[in-house]
Write a structure and sequence with these properties.
Number of strands: 7
Oligomer: single chain
Order of helices and strands: EHHEHEHEEHEHHEH
Distance between the termini: 39 Å
Strand order of the largest sheet: 2-1-3-4-5-6-7
Low-confidence stretches: 1-8
Structural class: alpha/beta
Radius of gyration: 17 Å
């Protein structure tokens, strides 16, 4: 199986944006950028996973199609490695690098971060960059509450729109931890909401179409001021816990495509 990370020991690898998903654009034609952050593992010095990279491509292609009129471009970030690795927070560091690289490459355009699993945690951590307007965390891996450790930060999300999506049957990342995080984030930033995908697991395969539609609605509404679907507007406006336990309805977004 081919690896997408650079060869060499961990300390010599560099993160990369790689080619845009779904074809290239000139920088003049780009109206906004979405950076997709694959899943990882808590501790590892192995190269980034090609499988995790590939898992983000369908979502990226769908977003590019939905945002073609506004000139949306998407990249799947290629990490240096697959591990978060404690205080080094390597995936978050690579996500922050990717935002800066997108700004260097495309100029003053709005940026959205979309991460899955530990990529979701990386998106939330890197959301404080001035260019970032939207942060979407899919089934984010978040640490257990620990009175001896600093809680996962939320202040960097002030001024951004934040959406967390989690399957209720996720056996890999605890949905209750993402709810607790969203509770704290909502106190700092009212533009935070969370959707629950009933009976779905970590990969969110069972309702993949609905999740893609929700992602497109949220990102295009935030980056390009398209009108949000009513459930997203209601979730943002609702006080906790209602706006943080919003059910993702079967068929979400299908009516807009007909």
């Amino acid at each position: 199986m081919a690896h997408y990370a650079l060869v060499g020991p961990p300390e010599t690898r560099r993160p990369r944006l790689g080619r845009p998903v779904g074809g290239s654009r000139t920088s003049a034609a780009v109206g906004g950028v979405v950076l997709l952050l694959p899943d990882g593992v808590p501790v590892s010095r192995r190269r980034a996973s090609a499988r995790a990279h590939a898992a983000m491509l369908p979502l990226g292609r769908g977003l590019v199609r939905a945002g073609r009129a506004e000139g949306l471009v998407a990249h799947v970030v290629r990490y240096r490695g697959r591990g978060w690795n404690g205080a080094d927070a390597e995936l978050a560091a690579d996500a922050s690098w990717a935002v800066a690289e997108a700004v260097r490459r495309y100029g003053d355009v709005p940026v959205g971060l979309v991460g899955h699993g530990l990529g979701g945690r990386a998106a939330l951590r890197a959301g404080g960059h001035d260019a970032v307007g939207a942060v979407l965390a899919l089934a984010p891996w978040l640490p257990e509450d620990d009175v001896a450790a600093e809680p996962e930060p939320v202040r960097q999300l002030v001024g951004r729109r934040v959406l967390v999506v989690h399957g209720t049957n996720d056996a890999r990342t605890d949905p209750e931890l993402s709810f607790r995080f969203a509770e704290r984030a909502k106190k700092a930033n009212r533009d935070t909401c969370r959707f629950e995908v009933h009976s779905d697991g970590h990969a969110l395969h069972q309702y993949a179409g609905e999740v893609r539609n929700l992602a497109a609605d949220f990102l295009l509404g935030t980056l390009f001021t398209r009108p949000f679907a009513r459930p997203v507007t209601d979730a943002m406006a609702a006080p906790p816990p209602l706006g943080l336990r919003m059910p993702l309805a079967a068929g979400f977004g299908d009516a807009r495509r007909r």
